[in-house]
Amino acid sequence: MSKKWKIVINSPVVLGFAAVCFGATLAGMLTGGAATRMLFMTRHTSLLSPMTWVRFITHIFGHSGWGHFMGNMTYILLLGPLLEEKHGSGMTIRVILVTALVTALLSYILFPGTALCGASGVVFAFIILASFTGFSSGEIPLTFLLVAAIFIGQQVVEGVFTRDNISQLSHIAGGLVGACMGFAFGRRR
Questions:
Q1: Fold of 12-188
Q2: Domain ranges (residues) in the chain
Q3: Phi, psi at residue 56, to the nearest 5°?
Q4: Residue 42 phi/psi, 5° resolution?
Q5: How far apart are CA 32 and CA 166, in angstroms?
């Protein structure tokens, strides 16, 4: 007798995040970027405006195009379910929200003339956090050191020597959020 296969929702937070990103990117494309600029992109507006604070979180959902979206979702869908299974849905949401807020605030303070959109900071948080597999208090995993050196080091070099529309700051900030949360999760165990 053959076993029937069924599709399961193995990672509700990550799948929901990817779906919202897809919807936000689609809305941006259908409106010629207007939806992205209005809802899914940080910019230097008054901190008294509620929309400034909303965009500090929602900027992670919008993407500048399908290539940007696909690149980020590949990593999110690869690493996210492993992290959600290991740390739980609530902790995965916290990683996403803290990364969104930290990257937006740093961009707002350090680069006031620069808009920010996309989930790249979340990708880097997930990459660094994933390197903490098997971490226990009092130990620093060699995989963490190598991943941090490769990914964050590359972003520092590109940030200094490359002029493009990619926010290396959000990559670095996301990586630092992932590292801090990885150490915090390791201590709790």
A1: Rhomboid-like fold (1.20.1540)
A2: 12-188
A3: -60, -25
A4: -75, 150
A5: 20
